[in-house]
Queue: 3 jobs
Job 1
Amino acid sequence: MVEFAIAALVLTVLPLGMVMLGGFHDLQFRTIQAARYAVFDALWWRERRSAGDAQEVLRERLFDEALWKDPWADADLLDPRQAVTLAAAHTVPPGRGAAITNFIMQPLSAMSGFLGGNFDLETLGFRSARIHVAVNDIAGMPAPLNALGLAFDEEAAILGDAWNASAPAHVIRRVSGLVPTTLAAQPRALLAPVTSAIALIEPAFAQLCWGVIDPEIVPVDRLAPGQGRLRATEVLSC
C-alpha cells in the first residue's frame, strides 16, 4: 500500500514537473535571446537611447506576454516589470583586446592627424549586456519545488563600431584622413594648365581627379548585364 502511494505521488508530480521544466527552459532561451538583442540594440542606438528606455523596450518586445504560467495555468511565472532587468556596459575591450586595438589604431590616428582628416573610429567599442530574470515561486508544488528561488542570468557582448554615416559627404569627411591624395585637393585648380597640356598626349589624364573621394560610384562588375561599361567621364567628374 505504501509503495502504491509513493508511486501514485511520483506519477502525479512528474507530469507537473515536466510542464514546469518546459516553461523554465523556454524562459532561459528567451533570456539568451534578450541578451543578444540588447547588445546589438545598444550598438545601434548608442547614446541616443537611455538605459531606462532600453530596458523598457526589451521588456515589451521579449517578455511582455502571458506565456509562462505555473503547471495549472493559474499564476504567472514572472512579472516583466519587476522580474526583468538589463545591465549594459560600454567599455574598452577586456584583456589583450585593448592592447590590440591600440596597436591598430595608433598608426591610423597618426595618419589621420597628419592629413587633417576626421578618422574617428571609436576605441571604446566593447559593449556588453546582462539580463537578469527572476522567476516566481510556485506555491502549489510540493517542497522543495515550491521555493526554488530560480533566476536566469545571461550575458552577451560585441566588439565593433558601426561607424555610421548620414550622407556621402559624411563618408568623405570620415575617410579623407586616410587618403593621402586629399592633400592635393586644394591646389588642384593650379594644376589645370598642366593637366590640359598632358591631356593632349594622354586624353585619359583629363579624368584624373586629385584628392576626390566618390563613395557612390558603382563598380562596373556590379552593373546589370546589358548596360555596358561606363566610361570614366560618366562615372566620375571633378
Job 2
Amino acid sequence: MIRVVAVWLLGVELLQLSAAARARGCPPVARPFAQASASGLLELIVEPDERERRDGKGRGMPGARYRLVRAGSASASIWEATSDDFPAQALVANDGDYVVTAFPVYEGPAITIRNSAGAVIRSLTEQDLISIPEKLDGAMWRIVGLDPGEEYLEIEVSRFGESGAEHERVALRRVQLMDVRVVDAPVVPPDFALPRIDCPAHTTLAVHADSAGLALTCAGEEDGPRFGRSYALEDGDLLLVDEFSRDARGDVQVRWLKREAGAPAERCESIYRGGELVSERCGEDVEPPS
C-alpha cells in the first residue's frame, strides 16, 4: 500500500518539475554550453542568467542568457537574448536565420524557435509534438536535427522495443522553421477523451502521461493547495487509481482503490501531516475517489 501512495506522490511532484524544483530552492543544473552550426561558422553560447529572476522568497531562478556569435569571435555578438528556462539542447542554422532551443519538461515551452534577430517566432509545448495516447503507449520524443535544406526541425517519436534496449520509431515529425508549424502533427483517436477534472480557483491543470498511466493535477503556488487524480490504462480504458489533495497547511490525503486479481476494488485512505504518514485504512466506510 505504501508503495502505491509513494509512486503517486512522486508523480505529482514530477508534473511541474521545473517550477517545483525552483520553489524548493533546488533549481535544475544550469551549466554553460556552446552549440555550433553544422558549417561551424556560427555558435550559440548559453549561460546561466539569474540577474532578473527571483522567486517569492528572493532566491535565484535559473534562466538562460543566449549569445549568437561568429565562431572565433565570442566577444562580438550578432544578437543576445534571455529565457526563463535553461535549455537542454540547441541547434543553429548555418545562415543564422533560426536558432532552436529545447527544454524537455511536462509543462511550458518544450521547443522554442528564434529568428535571425533572436526574437521568438513561436514556442511549442510537448502536447504539440506527441499525443497523450502515444505517451500512454510508452512513446517519447527527441530532437533529431535540421533537415539538409534547413527548412525543418526533425522530431523523432519512439518507444522501447520488445527487448527494452532499443528504441522503435513510431513517427518522424517535422516542424517548419519559418512559421513553426508541426507537419504530420499527432492525431488523437476520436474515441479518446481526457477525464474531466474541475480545478479550484487560482489553480491550473497539469497533465502528465507515460506508460505507467495518466495524472491530472490542479496546482497553483508551490506552497498552496493541490488536487489531482491518477489513472491506469487497462485494456484500452482509463481506470481511476487514486485521488490526491493537499491543503494550505501541507497536510495530504490520498484516497485510492486497491485492486487485486479476481477481487473487487477495495477503498483505502492515507493521511500525511508534516510529511509523516499518520493514518492508513481500508474499508467500505472510506469515501471512494470521485
Job 3
Amino acid sequence: MRLKQFLFLSICLLFSIVAKGQSIQLVSKFDSRLIKYYKVDTCRVYENVNNGQQTLQFLRKLYIFDQNGNISQEVEFGQNEYDGHTITKYEYNSYNLITRKLVLRPQRDPIEYNYTNSGNKWLRMVTTYPFQKEYVVQTNDQGLVIGILGKGMVPERDSITYENTGREVFGTLEEYEYRYNRFNNISKENYYYLSRNVRTITYQYSPNGYGAPISMKLFKEESKIPEATTIFTYDPTGFLLIEVQKDNLTGYTNTLEYEYAYHYDSPIFEKTPELKENQRFWLGK
C-alpha cells in the first residue's frame, strides 16, 4: 500500500504544474463524434502499478457520456477503499458547449463553474471558490478559442516604479494562449500566471487530422526540453486504449488503460474496423 501511495504522489508532483490551469481543459481525450456514433455509455480508467513482483490494476476514473457524446459525469476514485470519490457533473447547451460544471468533493465545499455562451461561442466563465475568479474568452470567427484571461484580486503595483503598493485590485491572474493546426486542432497551449510563463503544452495528431491527440509534451517555463511526455494509443475504431505518462527527468512512467461499455444497439457490435500493420490510430472520418 505504501508503494501504491508513493507512486500516486509521484504522479501528482509530476503533473502539479498543470493543476494551476486545471479548471480549463480544451483538449479532450475523447472524440465526441465517435462517442456519439458508437453510443458509448461509460469508460473506465485503470492505473497499472508494479510492486516489483507483479503489475496490479486499480480503478481510477469513470466517465459517463450523454447521447451527444459529451461527458456528463466524471468520477475520480480515492486511492484507498475508505477514501471518498470526487464527482464532476457537466451541463451543455444545444451547441454542445458547457454551461455549468459542478465539482463535488468528499467533506469539502463544492466548486461551481458557470459558463456564458453566445451561439457556438464561449464568452466567459465564473467561479466563486476558493475566491471569485472570472475568465474572459477570446474566439475567432469560427468559434475557436485563441485566448483566455483569468481575472481576480491581484497585488497592486505602482504605475511608475512597478513596486508593490500593499493593496489588491481586480486584475489579470492567468493567461492562456492557443495555437491550432490546419485541421483546427489545438497544437500548442501557453499558460501564464501573473505574467510569468509557467508551462507550455504541445499536441500531435494523426496525419489525417481527425480524432484526439496521439501525444502530448509538457514544457516547464521557458525550457526547450519537455519535462513530461504522454503517448496515447487507440484501437482500430479510434477509442483511446492506453495512456503512458513519462517523467523525462526521472524516467518514471505511469500507465493508464481505458475500457468502454456500449449501448446494446451500438454499431460497434456490427463490424469492427481491421487494424492495419503499425497503425496506432483510426484512419476514418
